Amino acid sequence: MIGASIYKIHICPSIDMEESEQQRLRSERVECFPLPSILSAVDIQHVDYFSLDVAGMELDVIKTFPFGAVTSDVITVTFQPHYMSKANSKQYLAEIKLFMEGVGLHDCLGELKAQTGGGRQEGMVVTFVRKGLFKE
Q: What sequence ranges are listed for the domain Methyltransferase FkbM (predicted)?
């Protein structure tokens, strides 16, 4: 059985839109399903590449990934450290790595810091690769 939740999402309206359209798009209620339910419903047992970027909820979501039922080759987790203090972003990164290490199926391939032209860090991407994927 697939469980669903209703969440309110906020949408950034385009400057080119009429004001009435901008007002309508400011927020919308959408039905959301847990990732394990979606994968199970469509009988997916392997994911080549899983990219996770959910605006601050990455650790909560990755903890729901059905590692026992679904294999994955590459997982990238993206988060925006500029929303948190430097110490908190380092702690958050450490928690993600610790969780994935505890799962024991993937190695951390590395981290990539994305920056804007002004040098401000906009995002952090951490890549995990299934153990044994790249055999010598």
A: 22-84
The CA distance from 100 to 30, in Å, is 30
Q: Which element (helix H / strand E) includes 88?
A: helix 86-103
Query: What pLDDT is attached to residue 4?
Result: 44
The Cα–Cα gap between 33 and 66 comes to 14
Give the separation between CA 76 and CA 41, rounded to whole angstroms: 23
In this predicted model, what pLDDT tens digit does every residue of 117-131 receive, in sequence order?
A: 565 556 788 899 999
What is the C-alpha separation between 37 and 22, in angstroms, rounded? 33
- DSSP secondary structure of 27-82: EEEEEE--HHHHHHHTT--EEEEEEE--TT-HHHHHTTS-TTT-EEEEEEEEE-GG
pTM, to two decimals: 0.71
Please tell me the total number of residues recorded for the chain in this structure: 136
